Amino acid sequence: MAAPEPLPEVFRERFAALEEQRRAAGERDLYEGCFGCGPAHPTGLKVRCFRTDEGVLAPVLIARQYEGPPGASHGGIVAAYLDELLAGAIVRATGRVAVTGELSVRYVKPVPLETPLVGRGHLVADHGRYADAEGRLEDLAGARVFATARGRFFFM
Fold it and tell me: Which of 45, 72, 112, 152 has its CA 20 to 30 A from that of 63?
């Protein structure tokens, strides 16, 4: 597996002190081509999670090709980013890989295209067979929230 591409300049200072969350060797093979997190997917989102004390942060820059309403991101792409972010929070908190069982998204404001955003996610509860997580997409300063999500993930 090749080294990840450097973060866009606009994110480097914010993420410089954080450790990127890596997949275990066996997981790399499973998820290399994943549309959400796979580094080998040709048109994928390539979501990268960075560890924090509370959960994970992810740099988000939604390309114009994912436009929905004029000037805003398609809701399905927003949901896909949040889905990956919540899954990353589950891995961060439990060390276990899980798949989405339920995902609920609240679209607070239109999510801008080609604008630096931060995804934030954390574990809510580990129930043993499954876990719940919450997250949001916000502007780089954390002043405006664009979308929130809650999900239930089943351990593989």
Answer: 152
Q: Strand order in 98-107's β-sheet? A: 50-51, 56-60, 117-126, 130-139, 145-155, 98-107
CA atoms 15, 143, 110, 153: torsion sign: positive
Q: Are 84 and 56 contacting, i.e. CB atoms less than 8 angstroms apart? A: no
pLDDT digits (tens, 9 = 90+) for 101-145: 999 999 999 999 999 999 999 999 999 999 999 999 999 988 899
Domains of the chain by start residue, with CATH: 20-155 (3.10.129.10)
Q: Give pLDDT tens digits for 21-43.
A: 986 555 656 777 888 888 888 88
Q: What is the CA radius of gyration of the chain?
A: 15
DSSP string, 81-93: HHHHHHHHHHHHH
DSSP three-state, residue 64: helix
Residue among 31, 10, 7, 1 at smallest CA distance from 20: 7
